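Subject: for your reference before the review

Hello V.,

The reviewers asked for a structural picture of the protein, and I figured it would be easier to keep everything in one thread rather than splitting it across files. Below is the amino acid sequence we used in the manuscript, unchanged from the supplementary table.
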Amino acid sequence: MRWDNLTDRTRHDRPADAALFGADAVTTRTFDTPEFAGITFHEIRARSILNRVPGASRMPFEWTVNPYRGCTHACVYCFARKTHSYLDLDTGTGFDSQIVVKVNAPELLRRQLASPRWHGEHVAMGTNVDCYQRAEGRYRLMPGILAALRDHANPFSILTKGTLILRDLDLLRQSAERADIGVSVSVGFTDTELWRTVEPGTPAPQRRLEAVRTLTDHGIDCGVLMAPVIPFLGDDPAQLRATVRAIAAAGATSVTPLALHLRPGAREWFMAWLGRHHPYLVRRYERLYTDGAYAPKWYQRRITRQVHELAEEYGIGPTRAGMPRRIPQPEPVEEPTGSGPTQLTLL
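And here is what came back from the structure prediction:
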């Protein structure tokens, strides 16, 4: 596997075509617990954790933080599958079961945020693989990452399907007092049968919506990314209505629909799954996605219009604007008076 570029070691003998990771800096582990059965973790020390989004990207942000590669959520449509091929890892079951863990992510981020070259730009998390996947329960990287962002009053956003985000509720509230933050939970549908087959490693949609309710009840505005809307399996008007109604009942501040897109790597894995579970749909998908990774504009517009009309009907409003960055200044320390000895304290 290609490991070099994610180590924090300086090597002057590195060839121009060096691999992504240095194998001598990787610790590979398995855990004998039911929740990690069949999962292999590759612990590495990254050289950088702030990633600049390519200029040609459609994403509305410029910087990301991704403490993991690969994802045990095992969503059959996940667009990030292709990234595993960069490491010579399988983009199918390998993506679901070979998880790269950047164990130094919190300390590295804190150092990079403190650099004079960093100007407090927005940082997006969960945009590649989920930062609150099951591995986070063991490695606990996000508390340190959030604490670093909080201490630097750096704006950020999180997108997740993981209910583990509730563990870090206090850190989110503290961050929201200092900077503009955004939290979104991904719920593309509420159909439990569909969920079990296309998102087998994720919490159930209803559990995710309960997390939305908990976040909003504690003052953290939480929107829902209604993604993906899966053609012919999750886009029936009754299904869309049921999903938007459940999102509204959870107290979401916004809902944003996104039709399924099938990039290389994800497309092959999803179509193989479709052929096994819904072979009668294969030709329809080939026609719908004949021009590339994205569904046709007419289809995207139709889904967007239907969801927005339902959101208006159920009273889902826009998310409030966040608070500006503000780093609290330390309170002045009073000088002791008198000539006698002074007791030093830590407070």
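For the response letter, the relevant points are probably these. The longest helix spans residues 297-313. The chain has twelve helices and 13 strands.

Happy to draft the paragraph if you're swamped.

O.
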